[in-house]
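Running this now, will post back.
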Amino acid sequence: GMVALEPTQLGKQQTTLPDVCDGEQLTSANRMFYLCPKLKRAPMFNASNITDFTRMFDMCVALESVPLLDTSSGVNFEDVFWFCEKLREVPPLNTSNGVNFQGMFQNCQALVTVPLLDTSKGENFTSMFEHCRSLVTVPALNVVNGKNFQRMFAECFLLENLSPLYALNGENFNEMFQY
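Update: finished.
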């Protein structure tokens, strides 16, 4: 099974949580900081064995910074930063084993740029950057294995720079660049 951790109700009311030196026993970060509306800085911990980062910071509307976590074992990055409205930048995460990037940055309205991400194994890019209304630049993404690109850049009103996307295996491009 999966081993996960979740803050207590008191922890969910904190603006910062302490860094910890362990965490290697964790295999899932699914909803780890879900609905921590006051959290401004995410703590550092050992995330090297986590494969599922689904909704890790979901609805952390005050989140401003994230440490460089070891995400190299991550396969699922669905909605990791969903509705992190104040997040302006993200460290260069290791996403080399990532398959699902659905909604990874969806509704990150203050996000201006994203780091270079290894998305070469990615299959699902649905809504990855949807509603990133301040996003100006996205570095080259390897999406050659991608199948679903629905609403990937929908409502990215300020997006100016986007490298070519070679979506040779793409099946769904509905509303990819809507608005």
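The chain has no helices and two strands. More later if anyone needs it.
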